[in-house]
Amino acid sequence: MKKHDQDFMRQQNKITVYELIKNDSPISRASIAKKTGMSPTTVSRIVGELTNQGYVAEFEQISSGLGRKATMLGLKGNSVLSVGVEIDKHRISLGVVDVNGAVMVSKVHHRIPEESVEMTLSTIVRMLQETVESEGLDSSRIAGIGVGLPGIVDNENGQVVFSVQLGWRNVDIAQRLKALTGYEVAVDNELKVKALAEHVRGAAAGSKRTALLGFGTGVGSALIIEGEIYRGESNSAGEIGHTTIDPNGAMCECGKAGCLQTYIITSALLLEANKIRKVDTLEELFEARRSKEMWAVQLIERALTYIAITVNNVLCVYNPDIVILSGELIENFPEIRQEIEDLCFNRFVWEPLRDSFSLQYTALGEDGVMIGSALLAQTRFFSLE
Q1: In what helix (H) or strand (E) does residue 304 lie, and over which residues does it extend?
Q2: Whether 190 contacts 160, CB under 8 Å
Q3: Under DSSP, is residue 347 helix (H, G, I), strand (E, B) or coil?
Q4: pTM for the predicted model, two decimal places
């Protein structure tokens, strides 16, 4: 065998062992050899290399009997880091995530909806610099930056094709942010990376086909099939907020009339509420509902009805085994969850599908996009030397 082929095989074996330790930790050398078919000598050599490089740590597993304690392997959490960024209409969230998907540190910055791309990027750079310096992080361990944001994203080239919420069109985020930070940058739709995070660390663990729905400043969905993000031809699969519900309905900020999200998103709810009296926040709207003000009760009930309709439509199209509800409306007002479930299972979900899925709520909350973006960057940019 030529040296080039031998080096390639060695590197592939190393990657295989690394991934096995990452995904199946705690695991022993013997189990790795059994699962991979590699010789114990080869496994021990690779584990030694990974340990010397600072990726792998050994620890003893407590024995339940009198036998010898097994030496188990796991990844060092801080051996590989990545930065996850969420850009939303009203805020920027940035966090450093370890190899296990745990958030080590995070910051949130208020964002003005009309601010320029340049201002948003400069804020991200400043947040990153402050975080690295204040936490004393080893910047050489940072594999890259992941960015999640609402809208249609060319994930291959790191470009925002069109984001209604941000008012951005044809913006090369990856290239511009890399020039400012020096790190490789991955960009994707916020719900796609949030669904990825839920699959790895959250409510979708073990699911074969997950649909995540988001209800907040926009309405969208994402589908994870066998651990992979379903993207469609132009990475725009899941933009259900712009499906037409009523062609004679209210104008959507996208320029079409009667989009689904015009019945659910925060701005639409507040716009309707202000026809009755001045209401500045969703919390004020829900306070009116709790006070049994009929207009507020009816407005929220209508939104919940369309959420249940959305669940049914996604079930009919994709037939997932788990549907996860997320977003500001779901996460900040848990009082509506039982009402949504009642509407789904007693009224709107097609009867043959009612027992085919589990309705869940995001386990990661506001950190989901940040974690998913960081994991995306790790997957794309980290490579073993």
Answers
A1: helix 294-318
A2: no
A3: helix
A4: 0.84
Name, in order, each residue with C-beta under 8 angstroms of 213's C-beta and a sequence gap of 6 or more. 219, 220, 221, 240, 307, 310, 311, 314, 323, 324, 325, 326, 327
Structure confidence at residue 61 (pLDDT): 67
Distance CA 364, CA 196 (A): 11
Sign of the four-CA dihedral 231, 232, 238, 242: positive
CA distance 315 to 210: 10
Reported as a pLDDT band with limits 50, 70 and 90, residue 290 is: very high
The Cβ of residue 280 has, within 10 Å, a number of other Cβ atoms equal to 10
SS3 362: coil
pLDDT digits 0-9 by tens, 217-237: 889 999 999 888 999 888 888
62: pLDDT strictly greater than 90: no
What pLDDT is attached to residue 206? 84
Q: Tens of pLDDT along 144-165?
A: 999 999 989 999 999 999 998 8
Q: What is the DSSP letter of 62?
A: P
Q: Are 222 and 189 in contact (CB under 8 A)?
A: yes
Q: Rounded to whole angstroms, how far apart are CA atoms 362 and 118? A: 32
pLDDT digits (tens, 9 = 90+) for 104-141: 999 999 999 999 999 999 999 999 999 999 999 988 89
For residues 144 and 83, is the Cβ–Cβ distance under 8 A?
A: yes
Q: What is the pLDDT of residue 385?
A: 67
Query: Is the bond leading into 26 cis (omega within 30 degrees of zero)?
Result: yes
Specify the length of the chain in residues: 385
Residues contacting 221, CB < 8 A, separation 6+: 191, 211, 212, 213, 214, 238, 239, 240, 310, 314
CB-based contact 176:162 (threshold 8 Å) = no
Q: Find out whether 301 and 316 touch, Cβ atoms under 8 Å.
A: no
Query: Which DSSP symbol is given to 371?
Result: H
Coil, helix or strand at residue 214: strand
Burial of 185 per CB tally in 10 Å (0-12, 13-18, 19+): buried
